């Protein structure tokens, strides 16, 4: 699924256009963000693609939803 990752005043946020859902990112598996999982406030866990550490935000990526928090 397409996910836009951006930096906000309170931290990182993920926006899923198809669901019109924007949630703060509460947990990051890898310190440099890319190539690991992130957890959104609503419980969704997303696998982000491997990208260079210096990738600029905001960016839209193809992420895979691996859990919906249920």
From TrEMBL:
The record's section on InterPro entries has: NifT, NifT/FixU_barrel-like_dom_sf
Coiled-coil residues are: none
| One Pfam family hit | NifT
User: Which domain of life, per UniProt?
Assistant: Bacteria
One GO biological process this protein is involved in is:
nitrogen fixation
**Name under which the protein is recorded:** Putative nitrogen fixation protein NifT
Source gene? nifT
